[in-house]
Amino acid sequence: MPLQNRVLPTGEIIAHPARGTYTGNRGIIHRQDRTLGTSRWSHKHWLICTLTHPRGVYHGPMPDRGWSALFFLDEAVALTAGHRPCHYCRRDAYRAFQSAWAQATDAQPERMAIDTTLHKSRVTRTRQQIRHEASIETLPNAAFVLINETAHLVHDGQAFPFTHDGYEPPRDAPKGRVTVLTPKPTVAVLRSGYRPVIHASAGL
Q1: Quick check: helix, strand or coil at residue 196?
Q2: How many other CB atoms are found less than 10 A from the CB of residue 14?
């Protein structure tokens, strides 16, 4: 049975056999039987990490003592779920994110400040994803929106439907206001030039 560790653009964590191309860290959120309780984070530092540890260490997805590994289809999904690049295993990506953050917010891109701001923008106290509305024409590439209750990746006027295994062929994006899943600060970071890694199925 697959573990409940696959994160969707809608913020849900489900059980699915596909591993994804990135893993992530929110601290220890699993129980001894490797199931999730009600908690969805134990700290505010939600990271996007490589599948392999820089030193070759692997503790398994839900060890007795260690953080709960979550998995994402790609980096765009992880960003939309409220994570940011890890400063240890993805140093170059983190520095690029930092630079775009400083440009987008005109604020010091210190890790604690970034994570505190992101946490206020990604989830409520009751673990609900915070969403907002915007004109789809104003959104940067790699933002996620809801179209007919399905998450879509936005890119150059097209919308790529998300599935657990990859993206379906794109369609023309609708006009006007849409529900945006990507947190507002992350949308600003994307607009300021950060380029996340997108799953190969999108062909981008």
Answers
A1: coil
A2: 12
> How many other CB atoms are found less than 10 A from the CB of residue 172?
8
How far is residue 165's CA from residue 21's CA, in Å, rounded to a whole number?
11
CA dist 79 and 186 (Å) reads: 7
Instruction: State the pTM of this model.
Output: 0.94
Q: Are 111 and 59 in contact (CB under 8 A)?
A: no
Q: How far apart are CA 97 and CA 40, in angstroms?
A: 24
Q: Which residues contact 196 (CB under 8 A, 6 or more apart)?
A: 74, 75, 76, 78, 79, 142, 190
Residue 104 is inside which H or E element, if any? Answer: helix 91-105
Cβ contact 162:152 at 8 Å: yes
* DSSP secondary structure, 54-86, as one string: TTS----SS-SSS---EEESSHHHHHHTT-EE-
Convert the pLDDT of each residue in 96-139 to its tens digit. Answer: 999 999 999 877 788 999 999 999 999 998 889 999 999 999 99
Residue type, 172: D
Sequence-separated (6 or more) residues with CB below 8 Å from residue 101: 107, 109, 114, 185, 189, 192
